[in-house]
């Protein structure tokens, strides 16, 4: 069983556009075999958390730790974290000219294997066809340049396709449902559910409860003001849907300004 | 610049005699020899090569004593150093009357063609010091003539290797004449062995007669300090498509020129370059529209690693009277390190009103969000970088008509990038 633990994580951003502390002590622990959801209002640090776990150099950890199986990831660059078993399904995947989707995925798989033991082409193609089929994707998608000219929905599906091909231990999915219609969301959920098992865990970041109707989480965390303020089972998501974040904030007596609140 | 002459008149004459050269060639050499030291070096914008050793090695020593008999069976030319070219023509080429000869044999057999085209219209003997030096000191080369109307299915493949172990400077000439309405593909590759103290001065002249269509692919992997000129002269309605991989490991001064002389002539020039280590590659590509309804497009993409330098000059010149002509260009350079130096200079010189012209240029760095995305899937920084670069260079790769040549260039790019990255990673 693998474990991912976030301990008292404080994170800052300092660049041209922003200078501020976004995460103010996040605690969270999950094991493989579990699906956790993180919900929360806009601007509360959900994406910052996912990017920081992955190792986006834009974010600076000022305090706390991120541990994979007890080992700190903080001094590891993003590619090492990926090879250690992390995956981040991104909100805004980059577009890369001249590199086909299939070629890219094969490189990603081979990055996890010994130099003299690349995945056999036939095995790769078989796996690719199976997953394209599962995600209702045209096989031409594999030969297109990576995310180049993909629609929003195609990009999201493509993130899930990569997830299925790379088979990480922990997948963080950052608002994978944003911009998807209900059919596309079902397809994405089908992909994630197909990964479910003792060796796979997922941290699903979402703004709305709707995705969780299709991927039932074991644990739901609510983030506000840069912290996890409440955790519970799947029913917590339903409760939020009814009462909204303001309701929960008032119930907990938190002094947090919600972005969308006027 | 060292003004000491590279040889004496007596030695020059002796060299000509040894090669049974024509009186005309003896005269060309003598005139160029007298002139070259006084002629100015050619000027290329933003490329300062004055400290380069472009004249290392004695061009006229160790000359081959006899010409080897030429065998003919496939369409292949190979030439090791300044040895006579090994030339093989396949049945198709032979039946069509294609001529491919070693330089010295050709000047004897085709004196009229030499008088008309050898260092006359594509690159004049007295254009500048490097050209005159070439005319005086040329010590190897090939001549290829494809007769009018001949269409070759198979490419003409030629491979030239500079041999620096002889201590001999490499002064190599290619003269290609594409007859009227002929149509064929050339695959060239150039390389040199490891020594770097010997210079090279290479001139290729491509003469396209009316209606000829030529596709020219080359992969350059020189390791010596070199002046490399590729100069084309296009007659009416002829077309020349280029796909060049400038993958040299040394300081190279590339002087590419296309004169769109005939009405309706057209060139598509595409090149990719990689500079790594501490090398400097200066690439100047000039297309001049003389004829009416001519079209010249330049696309150059390059990548720079470590402390290397890469300069792309693109010059599109439309002369007065070249009505309804088109000159477009795009020069882009991607720098992979803070110490890399790069420049992309588009220059448009328009002396006619009824034309279309445009340019795009950029000097940039690898996109950080692309690198992050690729690395987030587990690719190492080096592999991620190579993928981004391959994408960036892809626009030229896709132009290469033959899969084999495309794969070869892809492999060469990969090899050069891996070497460059190793060099960088050691330095870090």
Automatic annotation (TrEMBL), chain A:
The keyword ATP-binding applies. Keywords: ATP-binding, Nucleotide-binding. The keyword Acyltransferase does not apply. It holds the Pfam family ABC_tran. Residues 4-250 form the ABC transporter domain. It comes from the Bacteria. SMART domains: AAA. Belongs to the ABC transporter superfamily. Ycf16 family. PANTHER family: ABC TRANSPORTER I FAMILY MEMBER 6, CHLOROPLASTIC. This is Fe-S cluster assembly ATPase SufC. It comes from Lapidilactobacillus mulanensis. The lineage of its organism: Bacteria, Bacillati, Bacillota, Bacilli, Lactobacillales. The gene is sufC.
UniProtKB/TrEMBL annotation, chain B:
InterPro entries: Fe-S_cluster_assembly_SufBD, SUF_FeS_clus_asmbl_SufBD_core, SUF_FeS_clus_asmbl_SufBD_sf, SUF_FeS_clus_asmbl_SufD, SufBD_N. Coiled coil: none annotated. Residues 93-156 form the SUF system FeS cluster assembly SufBD N-terminal domain. Pfam families: SUFBD_core (PF01458), SufBD_N (PF19295). PANTHER family: PROTEIN ABCI7, CHLOROPLASTIC. Belongs to the iron-sulfur cluster assembly SufBD family. This is Fe-S cluster assembly protein SufD. It comes from Lapidilactobacillus mulanensis. The lineage of its organism: Bacteria, Bacillati, Bacillota, Bacilli, Lactobacillales.
